[in-house]
Amino acid sequence: MKPVIFTGAAVALVTPFNADGSVNYEELARLIDFQIENGTDALVIAGTTGESSTLSEQEHIDVIKFAVEHTKHRVPVIAGTGSNATETAVMLSKEAEEAGADALLLVTPYYNKTSQRGLYVHYKTIADSVKLPIILYNVPSRTGLGIDVETAAKLAEIDNIVAMKDAVGNITYTANLIERCGDQLTVYSGNDDQIVPMMSLGAKGVISVLSNVAPKETHDMCAAALAGDYKTAAALQLKYLKLIHALFIETNPIPVKEAVNQMGYAAGACRLPLYEMADETKAVLVAEMKKQGLLK
Questions:
Q1: pTM for the model
Q2: DSSP annotation of 17
Q3: Domain 8-229 homologous superfamily, CATH
Q4: Sorting pLDDT into bands at 50, 70 and 90, what band is 59?
Q5: 9: helix, coil or strand?
Q6: Catalytic option among 65, 154, 165, 257
């Protein structure tokens, strides 16, 4: 059995920006502390929710370094180092390893895409360049490229490819993946509205957007499922379902960054082309946050 990086809820953390667009490291420290103090089991830094696609390469590296240094081993730090260019992903992965990250999250190549054979070589090339454990990130709705179950099984034969963030949104895919790969590939939900269904099939937790605003609640949901208390876990899943949907009412991370700002943190605006929420969708988000007691 391969090592498990974490069980429970990992937050896909937003990257806060100052008014001039630079990274707000003081606020990033506050957000990291808020997460850890409220039970988050791991941090994912510079992932999709962290706006990795609009960070410069140097910013990307600096944000990872800062997160590792500030976290001080309180929870695992998982660095998002994926790219559509294999060479860039290798470079970022090496930098994250040198910075002291505990694991890597590698999204499938986007835009240029590739074949399943190319996908295997892409991931193998990155895996061969580092010793850190790797989480594959399968989110075809954003990248236009999915990892077939048989490709995942072949990748799981590589020692340091140990997990997948499954954001496919198809429970049948999840079931087939877990049945085929077994202990060779830990599965994490990549969709907050499917945490409990996926964990009932054997997933070990979630890499979560919801955790940005409700870290304790997301942790508790996963903890209940891990303990086999699916009645409690399901009740929490259903309780937060409308809030989860509101956090995706526009393209992620636009709503969750607004939600973090609403809670009093200086997360700032998203970088263009991501733009501020429309008034009508913002009203829906704020209303759901109030219903859950996150805002007065």
A1: 0.97
A2: B
A3: Aldolase class I (3.20.20.70)
A4: very high
A5: strand
A6: 165
